[in-house]
C-alpha cells in the first residue's frame, strides 16, 4: 500500500459528499455509503488492536519486558501492514508523544489528536473517541481519513509509565533514541489509530 499521509498536507476538508442541489435520495445513498466505509475502518482498527494485544501479550509472557520491546518494534509494523493489505487501506498508530519518529502525526492527525486530548476525561471516554473526514488533496484525490483514540491501560505502563525499570529504559534508548513515549498514567491519551482510504468515484 502506497503511503498516503505525505500527499495530504495541502489538502482541504470536503464539507459534504453531495452538492446541495442533488436529489435527496442521492444524498441518502452517499451517506449510507460513507457509513459503510467508516464501519470498515472501525473493523480494521479492531482487528489490528486485537492482533497487537495477542502478539504483545505473548511476547511479554515469553521473556523479560526489555526483550519484548524489540518484538514490539518488529511486530507492530508487520501486523499493521498485513491488516492494511487485507482491507485495502493504510493504517498505523500515531501519537503526540511518539516512540518511533516515523509515527509522528502529520498536520491533520496532530489536529485530531489535540481534539481528542481536549476531550480525554477518562479511559472509558477516550475509548469512545473517533473522528472521520473526507479530504480532497491538491492533486484532486478524495480520501476518507479516520482516527480512533487509544487510552493508556495498566499493561502499557511497563514500557510507557512513570516508573519504567532501568533495563527497559536502556533498551528503549537503544532502539528509540528519540523516544518521547514515557511518563504516562492509566487513563491518559496514548495516541490513535489512523486509517486512510482512497475514495474511488
Structure report:
By secondary structure, the protein is of the alpha+beta class. It has six helices and five strands, in the order βααβααββααβ. Strands 1-3-4-5-2 form a five-stranded antiparallel β-sheet, sandwiched between helices. A hairpin with a 5-residue loop joins strand 3 (130-136) and strand 4 (142-151). Helix 1 packs antiparallel against helix 2 and helix 2 (65-87) crosses helix 6 (166-175). The longest helix has 39 residues, at 24-62. It is globular. It starts with 11 loop residues before the first strand and ends with a strand.
Report strand %: 15-25%
H/E element sequence = EHHEHHEEHHE
Oligomer: single chain
**Sheet/helix structural class:** alpha+beta
- How helix-rich are the residues, as a percent range? 40-55%
Gap from first CA to last CA: 19 Å
Tell how many strands the DSSP assignment holds: 5
**Order of strands across the biggest sheet?**
1-3-4-5-2
Number of helices: 6
Overall geometry comes to: globular
Radius of gyration: 18 Å
Low-confidence stretches: 9-22
For the biggest sheet, the summary is: 5 strands, antiparallel
What is the mean predicted local confidence, pLDDT?
85
Amino acid at each position: 500500500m502506497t503511503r498516503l499521509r505525505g500527499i495530504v498536507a495541502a489538502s482541504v476538508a470536503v464539507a459534504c459528499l453531495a452538492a446541495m442541489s442533488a436529489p435527496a435520495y442521492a444524498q441518502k445513498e452517499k451517506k449510507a455509503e460513507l457509513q459503510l466505509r467508516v464501519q470498515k475502518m472501525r473493523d480494521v482498527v479492531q482487528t489490528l488492536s486485537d492482533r497487537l494485544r495477542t502478539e504483545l501479550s505473548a511476547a511479554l509472557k515469553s521473556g523479560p519486558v526489555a526483550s519484548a520491546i524489540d518484538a514490539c518494534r518488529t511486530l507492530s509494523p508487520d501486523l499493521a501492514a498485513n491488516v492494511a493489505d487485507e482491507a485495502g487501506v493504510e493504517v498505523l498508530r500515531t501519537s503526540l508523544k511518539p516512540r518511533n519518529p516515523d509515527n509522528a502525526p502529520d498536520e491533520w492527525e496532530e489536529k485530531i489528536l489535540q481534539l481528542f486530548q481536549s476531550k480525554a476525561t477518562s479511559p472509558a471516554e477516550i475509548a469512545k473517541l473517533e473522528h472521520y473526514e473526507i479530504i480532497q488533496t491538491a492533486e484532486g484525490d478524495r480520501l476518507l481519513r479516520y482516527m480512533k483514540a487509544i487510552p493508556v491501560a495498566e499493561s502499557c505502563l511497563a514500557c510507557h509509565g512513570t516508573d519504567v525499570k532501568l533495563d527497559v529504559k536502556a533498551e528503549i534508548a537503544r532502539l528509540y533514541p528519540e523516544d518521547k513515549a514515557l511518563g504516562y498514567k492509566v487513563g491518559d491519551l496514548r495516541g490513535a489509530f489512523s486509517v486512510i482510504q482512497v475514495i474511488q468515484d
